[in-house]
Amino acid sequence: MLEAQEIMQILPHRYPMLMVDRVLTLTPGQSAVGVKNVSVNEAIFQGHFPNNPIFPGVLQIEALAQTGAVVLLSLPENAGKTAFLGGVSKAKFRHMVRPGDVLRLEVSLDKVADGIGRGKGKAYVGEDLACAAELVFALQ
């Protein structure tokens, strides 16, 4: 398990853009399960439907991408590099994410070669699938 301080040693993101609070399981180069605690105190809720706060889908994708970046950057040969989101396809949003929800982020990589990673991500609230997408990462 990785706590916030350990995640910040891997990812360059910081508040308010760090979207992974904890990594529950990690197999470097293959997969990870992370957690994003959605808080009503997040600045996004001041303007994103203030009377009906919903965590934006684009931030759900960002949380999945950051989880995938942890998978890539935890490989010893990628230490110190940056993983950029290179593409998103087949994104679908199925369940609203609201303040107080715990977003479980599951990412698995299908292929990693020549500085490019490809994989799939799914975000859940409880057992409900909130979103899913195919992701491409570029390492520099």
Automatic annotation (TrEMBL):
<dbReference type="Pfam" id="PF07977">
    <property type="entry name" value="FabA"/>
</dbReference>
<dbReference type="GO" id="GO:0016020">
    <property type="term" value="C:membrane"/>
</dbReference>
<dbReference type="GO" id="GO:0005737">
    <property type="term" value="C:cytoplasm"/>
</dbReference>
<dbReference type="GO" id="GO:0006633">
    <property type="term" value="P:fatty acid biosynthetic process"/>
</dbReference>
<keyword id="KW-0441">Lipid A biosynthesis</keyword>
<dbReference type="GO" id="GO:0019171">
    <property type="term" value="F:(3R)-hydroxyacyl-[acyl-carrier-protein] dehydratase activity"/>
</dbReference>
<keyword id="KW-0456">Lyase</keyword>
<dbReference type="GO" id="GO:0009245">
    <property type="term" value="P:lipid A biosynthetic process"/>
</dbReference>
<comment type="function">
    <text>Involved in unsaturated fatty acids biosynthesis. Catalyzes the dehydration of short chain beta-hydroxyacyl-ACPs and long chain saturated and unsaturated beta-hydroxyacyl-ACPs.</text>
</comment>
<keyword id="KW-0443">Lipid metabolism</keyword>
<comment type="similarity">
    <text>Belongs to the thioester dehydratase family. FabZ subfamily.</text>
</comment>
<keyword id="KW-0963">Cytoplasm</keyword>
<dbReference type="InterPro" id="IPR029069">
    <property type="entry name" value="HotDog_dom_sf"/>
</dbReference>
<dbReference type="InterPro" id="IPR013114">
    <property type="entry name" value="FabA_FabZ"/>
</dbReference>
<keyword id="KW-0444">Lipid biosynthesis</keyword>
<dbReference type="InterPro" id="IPR010084">
    <property type="entry name" value="FabZ"/>
</dbReference>
<protein>
    <recommendedName>
        <fullName>3-hydroxyacyl-[acyl-carrier-protein] dehydratase</fullName>
        <ecNumber>4.2.1.59</ecNumber>
    </recommendedName>
</protein>
